Protein: Peptidoglycan/xylan/chitin deacetylase, PgdA/CDA1 family
Organism: Streptomyces pini
Amino acid sequence: MNRTTSTTAKTAAGRPNRPRRPRRLRRLAAPLLLAAGLCMSSLATAGPVQAVDGTVITYTQSGGRTVSFTFDDGPDPTHTPRLLEVLRKHNVKATFCLWGDHVRQYPYLVSRIAADGHRLCNHSMAHQDMGGWSQQQIRQNLEQVNNAIRRAAPGAQITYFRAPYGSWGQSPQVAASMGMQPLGWRADIGDWQPPGTGELVNRIMQRVTPGAVMLMHDGGGDRGQTVSAVDQTIPRLKAQGYTFDQPAVR
Ligand SMILES: [Zn+2]
């Protein structure tokens, strides 16, 4: 049955190629393992002095039937105040990923976000794609944002960093070294091009999963539909047993 003759190579699909693949993998394996080892050792040595590590997290702090709403690209003079009202009405804390330029324009909104007990997240100065940037360039940009936030809301903690476009490059390590947790997302409701409040409500309800960080926007365009959808979905999520939690900090 299990014939191991010279014909095996012809009859067993893929077998003739098999010896080649491992050779190629072996050639790659050494540098990959070395790189992984270097990464781990640099994390390990940096670990004790950092509050967070460089992992991009996509889940809530507590897990279980919790969810984190995160709002990007603000603060916005029209939609952020409305959103804050909605969140206050439902007694929900969220996370705001702020552009430094908008922070400088509307510092009073940042202090209101912080005063309401929401979490702050650095989202670059002007939504730059940092994918190809050096660590120094990234650090400079992130420091400008943090300085603007601290001027607007003295004493506020900047817990997270989110890379514009999810183009992370070397930014997770830089953010972590500055004490900010790299913050990704598990569900994106696609509100950057408003599809109608009803559609956004459906997307939130369909895409929510236990422990998910959800990506939404309160700035960068007309976010009226997002604010209304948030207002409508919070009671429905609570009715389904969800509670609202902050994104995880490792
Ligand atoms: Zn953004």
About this structure: The beta strands are 66-74, 95-98, 119-122, 158-161, 181-182, 187-188, 212-217, 243-244. The first strand starts at residue 66 and ends at 74.
